[in-house]
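Re: your question from the hallway

Yes, I did run it. Sequences:
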Amino acid sequence: MRARGAVLEHHAVVVRDGRILEVLPATLAAQRYACTVLIRRPAHLLMPGMVNADTHAATSLFRGVAAGSTPPDERIVGAEFARDGILVAIAEMLRAGITCFADRGYFPHEAARAAADQGMRIVIGMPVTETAGPSKSAADYLTEGLNVRDEYRGHPSISTVFAPHRVSTLSDAALARTAALADELDAGIVLDLHESAAEIDGSIARHGARPLERLWNLGLLTPALRAVHMAHATARDIELARRCGISLTLCPQSSLKRGFGLPAIGALAASGIRLSVGSGGGADQTQDVWGEMKLLALVSQAAGESRAGESQAAWDSLAIATCGGAAALGLEADVGALEPGQWADLCCVDLAGPATQPMGNPVTQLVFGGGRECVSDVWVAGRQLLSSAEFTRLDWPAVAARANEWASRFNMGQYNMGQFNMGEGRR
Amino acid sequence: MRARGAVLEHHAVVVRDGRILEVLPATLAAQRYACTVLIRRPAHLLMPGMVNADTHAATSLFRGVAAGSTPPDERIVGAEFARDGILVAIAEMLRAGITCFADRGYFPHEAARAAADQGMRIVIGMPVTETAGPSKSAADYLTEGLNVRDEYRGHPSISTVFAPHRVSTLSDAALARTAALADELDAGIVLDLHESAAEIDGSIARHGARPLERLWNLGLLTPALRAVHMAHATARDIELARRCGISLTLCPQSSLKRGFGLPAIGALAASGIRLSVGSGGGADQTQDVWGEMKLLALVSQAAGESRAGESQAAWDSLAIATCGGAAALGLEADVGALEPGQWADLCCVDLAGPATQPMGNPVTQLVFGGGRECVSDVWVAGRQLLSSAEFTRLDWPAVAARANEWASRFNMGQYNMGQFNMGEGRR
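Structure:
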């Protein structure tokens, strides 16, 4: 994914101890290597696993809440809920070729355990809040996040970042403390930013500054910061973001679905700011990074049809959804490209179906014609988690059964369906 | 699809002689009917087949043209090309639950034969042009279209409409003649309209009127007219279109991909104009009505997240993609709803997968979480064409092999890859 437009035909990827050893023509590979396991995929495209750079995985279970009802607060429902919801999201992501996700929720221990059990790569947001939960103080949340960070230090597929939630509800002091702590621990920070016009107006009213400017004043605008959404950005916002080296995670489907409008994808891409893509949050959470990638490519098309333009838009979006995501999560040395030394986080796509035949330009057809339904196989750190579209490890019937138990409980009113006060409504 | 929000659980659809006989609770159906064929789909949603209200099916084969090359003109390549391209499109559509499509191409005989052979429902555009083709005069195209109309008169799944292509290249006289002929024959008219700003500016420069106004002056704005695209519409355009009772086919992904921007979906939907959705044309043609439907729903979301709003947007988009399409094609008495007397054009969707579980609101989850990958079975006029995601009739390996032969010929330069002069560049 690093050399624009590079598509290697009839190649093999050699994996040892979970990492890519070599990428070379298949005929050469057959001569040079004696394989323990040889997997042939003759009508397929092999690419780096996709990266979902922002999700709230636990809330997958809120899909089960009947129309007309409001989901309860996830903090009230608890850790078991989080685990079961994250497993639904992991199933959906693996099936779609996503090998790595950045999650933000209130139960980081559960996220770490679920991802580790299933072999998924995860970046866990350590919640930073000033609002107490139903059985935890604001400080408890921070402590719990830091405990996860310590417990998984050096883990090959689990890392952590601070996740202040959300900027508009946090005091200047809390944000500045987070920046200092992140700097001290050499940790990243991820937060929602400029998602809606109301958020920006509120910040101007309360703090006399747009949220981005406020973060700059507080010293948070550094390359360690990743801002999610940025659906509303003036030319000045973009220039400030670029100059400070922050990275952005765009969630175009989430932004549309929540009625906030599309980010200025063309201007953001042209600015050189590091971009990644995520499924974002919102009611009825889905993990559709393919849809986000396609929408990015569609929206970034300049006026007038052009095959060259389409091909470039497709490549750029694919890069954002793979190596861009890896870089945004600070994992570019480990994943995001089919290069020797990288972890073998791989997504294999079957291009033999009617949406992608006949084959002309694989990347254009992958992005505009393909979709998650074409994903056949997935490996994370060399371990195969999906094989010919079947889970090798995840027990989907069991996960689905637990998910539907939650749906029954929600719809029988076992949880208070009202809002837990978070200062600003439901995420 | 006609009663907003109606979802019937544990129901059966009884089909006889290709038409729906009754829709009733499954337990009652078991008591009342002795079936020749009983198909159980316990974790599924059954809905009217989707309608792709605009496509240029033959051009599916241009996907096979390598990046950097320009596809040849379809009229030069010929009838065999059209047949093979249409078969690729039919495969893609059936796999995605589309049971009916409106096609515009230069080989209406091939379109009719391919659709009839495969059992698909089709509305065929009879090309109206003033430009001669490589071996046909402009009059030949019209004669050929009218011959197809005569040949298939009374056919249960094939109908025809006039398809002037395109408004900007046609004289006032040709458009007025088409209107008179359509009126005389009681036929519909379909044409691209207000796809791009350039088209509108050109019409003002040449004719002193926006394309819509020009058609009004020429007497074409009647309920028999279906206008495709309408990506650029002022409030006055919308009011004129509404008052004249024309219908619209929106192709939002095509509009984005070709760089023309999104239609004003909210205003169009609010106007009460009959809406349908299509995959449109363009390089690397795809038949992704699910994607169009989802994009419509996303874009029509009003500001601010709301489960009720999402649910309504999902329902409206689903209606546009099913009964809306049927109405736009003049087929509302025959297809588009699960009602006694309608042809059994059905799409069955498997909702048991990780993108649509747990189940809360089936319609919201179908539109926002589902996709063509969830389609398990398809029937047209009661004949099953897809069964558990496998074609029952279409020979995909043979279709794909022919498609790839075309790709080889294109890429070996067997056709002049330049533009055949159509007055306005490639469609």
